[in-house]
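$ ./design --mode recover --in tokens.txt
reading tokens...
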């Protein structure tokens, strides 16, 4: 089946990789269903993709009923569901001793529970179409970074969730992939750079190629190719595949040395920046959560 024949649901579709991938898939003829918490951004995303082939649904991936509703809306609008891109994800800031525990919990909820809810809601429809589910993990599943423990843990968790899910649904004709990207120039990375000078400093001091940021377009091309080929793994840039194959070396005592040298100076300053911000997530994520709380009330 070509992309032009497919109905594709993308979580976190209002901006960043989700939106740009939706645009690229829409240009290839796919019909899109985008979910997000940000209604104005979602409306703009639908306009950018094209209202004749795209629908936006405000839904929290942490709410299973909301994701079941999004899947039902996709089928009602387009008659089927062929591909799901479980893309919604956030990051949070601060060491284990400094991060707001609620921010740690929210990161895990969105990045892991949100993927579970997305898969749980979509699998019955994907079984009908022998479809494809792409779970967005990260290079962070292979290589940890100080001050980002919640993000690291959640991305490692969803990688293994995808591995387990693949074993459960292959006999149903459903293909499952996981995507692993390095630092991509998305709002998530831009927000961290803006909020935390030490985050930018850490990036510059990491050994190459870990210190490089990749443009969104390269990531979109990798995602579109992954959807087209129903890939088991999607990597961007290509060297991330090597990091996955060598994760035991990266996480060994020797592999940790370059970052361990940075931590005594860098981490206390990062934690001080987080305290000065008064939040452990970007202002955009905090605003979305506050808006969602008001909407539910």
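writing sequence...
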């Amino acid at each position: 089946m070509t992309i032009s024949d497919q109905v594709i649901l993308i979580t976190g579709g209002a901006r960043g990789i989700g939106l740009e991938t939706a645009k690229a898939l829409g240009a290839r003829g796919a019909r899109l269903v985008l979910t997000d918490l940000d209604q104005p951004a979602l409306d703009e995303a639908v306009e950018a993709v094209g209202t004749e082939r795209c629908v936006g649904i405000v839904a929290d991936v942490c709410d299973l009923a909301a994701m079941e509703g999004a899947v039902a809306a996709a089928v009602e609008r387009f008659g089927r569901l062929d591909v799901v891109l479980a893309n919604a994800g956030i990051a949070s800031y601060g060491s284990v001793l400094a991060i707001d525990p609620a921010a740690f919990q929210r990161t895990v909820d969105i990045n892991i529970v949100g993927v579970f809810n997305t898969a749980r809601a979509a699998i019955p429809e994907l079984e009908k179409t022998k479809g494809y589910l792409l779970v967005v993990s990260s290079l962070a599943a292979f290589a940890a970074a100080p001050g980002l423990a919640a993000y690291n843990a959640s991305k490692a968790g969803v990688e293994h969730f995808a591995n387990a899910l693949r074993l459960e649904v292959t006999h149903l004709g459903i293909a499952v992939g996981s995507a692993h990207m390095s630092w991509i120039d998305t709002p998530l990375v831009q927000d961290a750079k803006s909020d935390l000078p030490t985050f930018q400093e850490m990036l510059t001091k990491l050994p190459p190629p870990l210190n490089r940021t990749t443009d969104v377009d390269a990531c979109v091309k990798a995602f579109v190719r992954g959807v087209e080929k129903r890939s088991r793994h999607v990597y961007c840039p290509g060297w991330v595949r090597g990091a996955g194959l060598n994760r035991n070396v990266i996480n060994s005592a020797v592999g940790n040395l370059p970052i361990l040298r940075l931590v005594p100076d860098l981490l206390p300053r990062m934690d001080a920046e987080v305290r000065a911000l008064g939040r452990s997530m970007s202002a955009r994520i905090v605003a979305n959560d506050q808006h969602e709380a008001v909407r539910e009330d």
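exit 0
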